[in-house]
Amino acid sequence: MGLTLERPTQAPGPAVSRPSPGSGRGSRARWVWGWAYSGILSVLLTLTVLLGYLVTGIASGTVDWTELLTSSTWSPGNLAFGGLAMLYGSTVVCILALALAVPVGWAAAVALSEYLPPRLAKPLRLSIELLAAVPSIVYGLIGIMVIRPFVADLGDVPGGDSLLSAGIVLAVMIMPTIVAVSVDALAAVPGRYREAAYSLGLTRREVVRSAVLPRARPGMRAGVLLGLARALGEAIAVFMVIGRADDRFPESLGDVFSFLVRPGQTLTTKLAGPEPMLAGTSGPYFAALCGLGIILLALVAVATVWGTRGSTGRAARAPRTRWSSAWLRTPKDRLTTFVRLGALLLPGALLVGMLGILLAHGGTALNPVFWFTASEGAAGGGIRDQILGTLLLLATTALISLPLGYGAGVVIGTRASAKAARVLETLTVAVGGTPTILLGLAGYVLFCTTMGWGRSWLAGAVVLVPVVIPVVALTTAGRIRSMPAEITEAALALGLTGSQYVRSVVLPYTWPATLTGLLLGLARAAGETAPLIFTATVFFGAPALPTGIVNSPVQALPTHIFTLSQDSGAPEAIAQAWGSALVLVLITAGLLGLAVFLRDRFEGARRWTT
């Protein structure tokens, strides 16, 4: 094993020793590493601000934790703050989502990895990645049109707003995450295990069961936990279909099933409603909401961290082989193949169906006039200003996130020890999994209220930064780890300093992965609604482009769709919402498509300069 620069401060010899502070090279080095460490600082600062906001809010009033966790009565007028019904709602919708998404997601992942040739698996995987990038506001809009009527007919209840509707919407949302992570886990199983199993005369089903799944199972469980983290933190899509009814908690086991088709409430929908604005910034009401935020953040953090550590746990135990009767082996193998390939068709069908619905109801987006004219009244005209506002938010977020995310990735990949790198990665993943509704509430208090910015496009861009930085940092750090040892040995032999190594070796080698991570992060940020509602956007009255920072809101596509969808009785509003949703999906798909192109174009590339 050759010497590496993964730990420049620990590498022997003068070749990697940093120059003295007084030299010009030393000043340049301090600037480079100061910039890099600012990325890590931004991650820690995000967690600090978020926790500080919640802890300060709790300290501003008295929180009865026993009542919050065990009572189902929520009545601010009577100072009764029981969160049990919201905990119950979050639990139920997440269980429903996992029960629907996990079997299909795992079967589809196995079919992609083990049954299909690469020329077919690649486009199908791309369709699943497109599903993962569809903004949550679009899922909510489709839930209003498709899922709510289905549940209304199923349960013979008016409207269809219910826990069941929310669970179905979440299942569709988290399935792509489960499939993508599970495919990576299956692909990481060395081929020699499959070859050894086939040499014993096992069928494909037996090979997958006995040789592949035992070793891929930790990573596949990690996909489930990451999907659970997204389900717990999702606010807007659930907000649009759950009905937001307080105090709905079953009193008997028989009520559990009847309550599935009735409106309910979750932790995220409570925080995404109007109450955080009505509660002010202190007092028992605000403290109780912050208590709910702490509970939500803790649940998501546990699921996220546990999920990311799931694939690095103990090695899988050798499975116990169970032999079937010879005459049943072939029928079982064929049946399993049919079921798994059938499961794989579902994500593709969902994507085709979603695009069909968007094209059928959002056909106005195909008219260029809709893109380039300003809106008129409540639901007339085009969406020029909303597109410009969205692009402004994304561009500002990219300018802030790229240097910070890249710096964090460089520190994790080159400067941190193995233990420190694990800790920093865990914190970075925790920031990436933070419910965006909490980022929006914290940004509202910090920027809009405390700093006096009011609604501001810059505040909106800043609260989107924690969505993008983790993706950039983790993709950059992963690319650095894949760097061949001979590149680092050559840098050592040339006597490069740490800053020169980053500038001349790491940057040319990692920029494709970094840019891909940035585009993936922006694709997610483009569809975020909850943070912008509190910090940056208004429905109408804002200029196309702001002229300042303070009290300078913008209009944006996600919040525009959300507001229009609340007026579901007006045909003009619904038509405008569908057209805006199609435009938002096209923007997101463009970012994702460019990211996938760069990933495929530069995957495995070994480019560097000296």
Task: Describe the overall structure.
The protein is built from 24 helices and four strands. It is an all-alpha fold. The strands form two sheets. The chain has a two-stranded antiparallel sheet with strand order 1-2. Helix 3 (84-115) runs parallel beside helix 6 and helix 13 (284-310) packs across helix 17 (418-432). It is globular and about 70 Å long. The relative contact order is 0.14.
Give descriptors for this structure.
single chain, 610 residues, mainly alpha, two-stranded antiparallel sheet, 1% strand, globular, disordered N terminus, disordered C terminus
Average of pLDDT: 81
The termini sit apart by 22 Å
Which of globular, elongated, flat, extended, rod-shaped describes the shape? Answer: globular
Low-confidence stretches: 1-24, 311-316, 604-610
The radius of gyration computed from the alpha-carbon positions, rounded to a whole number of angstroms, is 25 Å
Strand order of the largest sheet: 1-2
Helix amount = over 70%
Q: Outline the biggest β-sheet.
A: 2 strands, antiparallel
Number of helices: 24
Going by helix content, strand content and strand pairing, the class is: mainly alpha
Got a strand count? 4
Q: State which percent range the strand residues make up.
A: under 5%
The string of secondary-structure elements, in order, is: HHEEHHHHHHHHHHHHHEEHHHHHHHHH
